[in-house]
Design goal:
The protein is of the alpha+beta class. It contains one helix and three strands. The longest helix has 21 residues. It is globular.
C-alpha cells in the first residue's frame, strides 16, 4: 500500500459552527467536523471512499499536486 499526500484547505464555518475541509486535487472533495481533528478524520475517510469508488468505476486518479496559494486582497468598500 502506497502513501499519498493531499493538500487540504480547512476553515471555520461560523454559520454552522463546524470546521469545513476541501481537497482541491480530488474535485474539491469536502467534509466537516465539530473540531479540526474530527474534520480531518472525516476527510481521511472521504478520501479513502473516493479511491474505493474510483477503483470500482475504473476511474484513473491523476497524481496532480496543485499549487495552492492563500492570498489576501484589500478591496475598498462603501
Amino acid at each position: 500500500m502506497g502513501m499519498r499526500k493531499f493538500k487540504v484547505l480547512i476553515e471555520w464555518d461560523p454559520n454552522d459552527s463546524v470546521w469545513v475541509t476541501q481537497v482541491p486535487a480530488l474535485n474539491h472533495l469536502s467534509t466537516y467536523g465539530s473540531t479540526k481533528e474530527e474534520a480531518l478524520a472525516e476527510t481521511r475517510e472521504a478520501i479513502l471512499g473516493y479511491f474505493e469508488a474510483a477503483a470500482i468505476e475504473q476511474i484513473q486518479i491523476e497524481d496532480v499536486d496543485r499549487e495552492i496559494d492563500l492570498i489576501e486582497l484589500e478591496i475598498a468598500t462603501a
